Amino acid sequence: MPQRPDDLNTLVQQVIAAVDALDKGVGGSDVSAFAGQLRAARPDLFGQLGDAALAERASRAMAGAMLQVIGEIPQIVEAMMSAIDRRTTDAAVRCALTGALAYLVRPRDLLPDGLPGGFGFVDDCVILRATVTEFLDFLPRGFTTAEREKRMLELLAVAIPPPRLPEFQAAVEGIWLAFHTMLWMSDDEVEFTAARIIADPIGTPLPVSDRISIPLPPGPRLSLAPGSETLALTDGVLTVRFVKGGAVRIAADGEIASLE
Predict the structure, then answer these.
(1) pTM of the predicted structure, to 2 decimals
(2) In angstroms, rounded to a whole number, what is the distance separating the alpha carbons of residues 62 and 157?
(3) Where are the domains of the chain?
(4) Cα torsion for 234, 28, 131, 103, to the nearest 10°?
(5) Cβ(259)–Cβ(153) under 8 Å?
(6) Whole-angstrom distance between the N-terminal and C-terminal Cα of the chain?
(7) What is the pLDDT of residue 64?
(8) According to the model, what pLDDT value does residue 207 have?
(9) Closest Cα to residue 125, out of 177, 179, 65?
């Protein structure tokens, strides 16, 4: 059967092509544009360094790291698609993964996909990685770890202006509730919902139930205290420390040197 121009598979491939086309290399145009978006979004954070030149260096390193993280979207999608295609995967889980991919292809979400430097993919990457933390057992073995995904979520959340963080957290929780609503639906219901999402991912809403009627475990938290991360730039290495503990160290070329 030929694919429709607006079905899920077609739109996912378009997003993957856009992510692959980003200039993520050292000195790349998208690194510069992303760094500018970071400084505009988080003047409070880069202001900690007390010097405009240091702030620019730090933002470029962080932009490089975030673009590397965003650049993993195709691999995350491939892992999700593998689980969706595996008939031994629970029907509700297949439907939930399909719903996460539907968010990915929506052009007008929390951050428009057309923002400079690939900055508009930050929220998409947050939703995908929040999904990964819930359904890690269904993805290919060795694909990632829960601890790494936690740090990647915290790093991406640094790009969110503190006043907007509750909005992003609400979106993550909304997706979380939708997933758990699917887990309580019958197989026939979730198969029907998944088929609708695949055929029309932009126009099909995800099922939602009130959280009182769904036993909902704790979901991913982007931050407990927005804007409380700290930065340090030492010997060319940027250290981002998170309010909940832990840190990410980033080399000047944007490579993630270590997680703790």
Answers:
(1) 0.86
(2) 12
(3) 8-223
(4) 140
(5) no
(6) 48
(7) 95
(8) 76
(9) 65
pLDDT (tens digit, 9 = 90+) per residue, 103-113?
888 776 678 88
**Using H for helix, E for strand and C for coil, what is the string for the chain?**
CCCCCCCHHHHHHHHHHHHHCCCCCCCCHHHHHHHHHHHHHCHHHHHHHCCHHHHHHHHHHHHHHHHHHHCCHHHHHHHHHHHHHCCCCCHHHHHHHHHHHHHHHCCCCCCCCCCHHHHHHHHHHHHHHHHHHHCHHHCCCCCCCHHHHHHHHHHHHCCCCHHHHHHHHHHHHHHHHHHHHHHCCCHHHHHHHHHHHHHCCCCCCCCCCCCCCCCCCCCCCCCCCCCCCEEEEECCEEEEECCCCCEEEECCCCCEEEEC
Q: With beta carbons less than 8 A apart as the criterion, state whether 169 and 160 touch.
A: no
Structural tokens at position 180: 């758990």
| Cα distance between residue 236 and residue 246, in whole Å | 20
Tokens of 127: 């939703």
The pLDDT of residue 1 is 37
Percentage of the chain with pLDDT > 70? Answer: 89
